[in-house]
Here is the input.
Amino acid sequence: MSLGARLEGKRVCICAGSGGVGKTTTSAALAMGLAARGRKVAVVTIDPARRLANSLGLAELGNEPRQIEPERFESLGVEMHGELWAMMLDPKRTFDDLVAGLAPDEESRREVLANRIYQQLSSAVAGSQEFSAVVKLYELERSGEFDMLVLDTPPSRNALDFLEAPTRLTNFLEGRALRMFLAPTGLASRVVGRGTGVVFSLVRRLTGVDLLQDLSVFFRVLGGVLDGFRQRAVAVDALLHERSTAFLIVTSPEAEPVEEAIYFRSQLRRTRMPFAALVVNRVHPAELLEVDPEDARRELASGVGDALARRAAANLTDFQVLAERDRESVARLVAELDHPDPVLVPHLDVDVHDTYGLVQVAHHLFAASAPAA
Amino acid sequence: MWGACLVTLLSKRLLFVTGKGGVGKSTVAAALGTLAARSGMRTIVAEVAGRNDVPHALGHPHDAALPEETEAELGPGLFWMSIDPQHALSEYLHDQLRVGALADVLGQSRAFGYLAAAAPGLQELLTVGKLWELAQVQRRTPGGRPYDLVVVDAPATGHGLAYLTAPRTFAEIARTGPIARQARTIHATLTDARQTGVVVVATPHELPVTEALLLDREVRRQMGLELERTVMNSLVPARFSARDANRLREVLATAATSDGAPPDLRHRLAPGQAAIRAALSQASQARDQRRQVDRLRRGLGHAPTPLPFLYSAAVGPEEVGVLADRLERAL
Here is the structure.
């Protein structure tokens, strides 16, 4: 089944995989291909190195989607039947906007945004980027402005960071025990019981009193937005489980990304999130394995001379090692993911970092699907 | 005899290896660890963020259980550990509170669990704290023997920086108290160029080079450190000159016109054509890579240390050994 067919009826596509496998490129090419085929698509990426902007030929992108002029692609022979929009996620901005939107009044809004613990939480904490990404996705989805959203997941070494981000933040923000603990009188002492006194004094021994005070201020000021925040986290988590959501696992044929892809698939299964397709980038063509380098050397010798023919044959032998590895990797992925027809994008001679490269990748992603009507 | 650069590099107590995802940080970390261990240094390669790539690179099969010891000896003098913040927290509590029972009360308290999850940057701080502890001449871990060198297989660019800056971040949040004091001590070690070095790994492609340059700037700005080394990994050799490529292209064109169908559309490749395709691909890759090497060199103001692309199916002990040899010669 082609990638186009697999994403039929989907409204959200989340591209996941380990770093360096071509996730951003795949996301952008996928979004472009879908837009060319008539859909109104927004691609969302966290992009510290501005790779998406670069590959789309833009100086920069902001925290709101903007439309990419179709002329950029038309000059490369791609007809845009739909619209391609792109945005670069600013995690801190997104987080701040969310909190500001949930705050009941101007004063609590200001107080939250100015709190030092909050500031660290929204920028420095692992998981807040991932959470911001899904929050943005959710907002765009709810806006109803797009037929399709493609999310390039933040670069992380562990796929779980992404899947668990909403739950982790919900757990933390719910923090009932923490709130009770920070007010060790009244309800807290009754509910938590005797342990609290000991725990509290032990913690104070470690942290000093400042951190505890700041945390309690943090929870007080955050109190007003807490419920809204928790509801949002729950809604966001629900979006990840929707039938109209599709996870696309992106990998390259190297050993570590392959293991990561297999692990990610098992985690999707465990968390009951919908897997749609596997994309394997940079695959060396298996046809290279069907020839004998020695035959190649003999065949070329008369045309290019002995020395060059020998070097070309030796190089072919090296490429066969990679082609064999790639064939085995793909076979392993097919078996482990129980996914018979992954999308294979060949190892391209060019380093894909511009619009031309994107068009080439999109061509391979959609290779098996019928051209747009 | 080692070059001056390698001597300086291995004189640190902590080496952070970072760079864009997928550039081979774990492999380079394993190679640096191997190199140090070979020379008789007691060395540990530490992974963070739940990764276990190094044992695999050093020959541990993917489907076998990982070593159970927290500091496992994978080869003579070469240790490995994957740092678990939860475990680091419990260790820390035992170390600080001295009384095991108290530490257990705290460690098992749900309220404390929430606090630990709530304090921003605490997970990162605990991880870096453990790295710092590994690098101490006087270990705080009961029975722990000191290491001569701790090589950290750090997360990619952004997260990697978050780890390096976590102690300062946390010290700013907590302001006073033992934790803030300890965080400041760790920060002082991390910003001391005699003790800590940052090694950035790139591959000769657009984005990895961009991120290496970004790290060069940010490590200086945020940590006040110069990059100790930049390693350009996965360089393919220049096997074919422009003239070679042209000759091969001509042969391909002749073959295409002689039987009517362009080679891409034929079902099977003739051996010669397969070899030409591979050669042209290799040649264009090598050409693109040279451009990126130049870009990195210009941006850094000095030449990165080259490491070859290995035409092998997987990175195992043999490959890591080859890379360690290359580093030894190049540095």
Observations:
- Residues 290-323 of chain A form one domain.
- The radius of gyration of chain A is 25 Å.
- DSSP finds 16 helices and eight strands in chain A.
- The first helix of chain A runs from residue 3 to 6.
